[in-house]
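re: ur question from yesterday

yeah so i grabbed the chain u mentioned. its 432 aa long if i counted rite. heres the sequnce exactly as i have it in my notes:
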Amino acid sequence: MSFNLPLSISDIWYLRGQIFNRLVYWLYCLICLIGQVKKMGKIKIFNGNVITPYRIIKNGCVVIEDGIIVHVGEDNVDVPDCRLIDAGGRYISPGFIDIHTHGAGGHDFMDGTVEAYLGAAETHARHGTTALTPTTLTSTNEELKNTFSVYKKAKELNKNGAEFLGLHLEGPYFSMEHRGAQDPRYIRNPDPEEYREILTWSDDIIRWSAAPELDGALEFGRFLRSKGILPSIAHSNAIYEQVQEAFESGYTHVTHLYSGMSMVRRINAYRYAGVVESAFLIDDMTVEIIADGHHLPQSLLKLIYKIKGPSQIALVTDSMRAAGMPEGESILGSLKDGQKVIVENGVAKTMDRLSFAGSVATADRLVRTMVELAEVPIAEAVKMMTATPARIMGIDRYKGSLVPGKHADIVIFDENITVHMTMVRGRVVYHC
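ran it thru and got these structure tokens back, copy pasting raw so excuse formatting
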């Protein structure tokens, strides 16, 4: 409302009413917050093997107060007036962090509904994920704008699933040679006018995957970094020299290593290293891998682990809607515009069964695969699903490890990596 002084009586009464309503609203919010804190109180998780950033504490104990970790140790400390959770000799681990997922439980984030976001988050929580980054596919800008709006609503309503960290845009700035399942109708080069406008539609974007060899892609990466957004190399045909430039322009991470990217190839009779070799050569480059046992065989899982190590590798599901669902026919992408696929033997395939069409992995399966197939120590497999993705996304100050002062995001699982309980910020969202 605009007005000129002096105010009329009606203006004064109107403003007084607005101020009163605002005060009532904030008082209500404060009461709700206080009530929530009182309800959470203190929790002690005991009789478990606590996985810390440095070791596994046998018969350890974790104490939580108002959703924050306040104690981690070997002794079963006395905590008066607390809720007790007996881990039953199982592992007490930081909650899994999935920084690349498209959906689960029959839902895809591109469905454009609040129900899809909440349903996928709840499914992932049942498998130990406490925080995730909903990921889009190459699509129309109208679909993107819609999912931005839906995400914001879903984030407010998400009480029973993995926490939403922010959005990851996968595309549309990709190489046609390595587009994979990305829709070729929408693939194009970065356009400053377009991506600047897209970023005005949402303040929830925290990561954007693109092919850095495209015209304008280096400028795009630098612009994203200036906005605090992680540029990531994906679906790219770049050679080593281009990846070097990209790294210097902010592309410090590689999306689903080996999937949708160049390897050693010939150009005019000469061999050139591709994105995969570049990721190995650049020590500070972080990578993510789909460790479902299908997208990468045992030999490559071991090779990546040997070269990059657990501090530079994040495990990601890159899961579609069929994750956590029975095998059979499914849809890759949105229900309206996706493609039919068949899920069998733990992976989605095109209907002709000539190629993979998406991951149906959940976070617990990734950890299990690294332990059982890649023969990685369990503490390091967990690190790749917790501390490393937290650091990559810049949230390691408050997530990713069982350390006093951090969020009480905790998962309890047995020796088979079967999840028995998932806790998000001190709130149990799943218990079997």
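noticed a couple things. The CA atoms of residues 111 and 336 lie 7 Å apart. also Confidence is low (pLDDT under 50) at residues 1-15.
anyway ttyl
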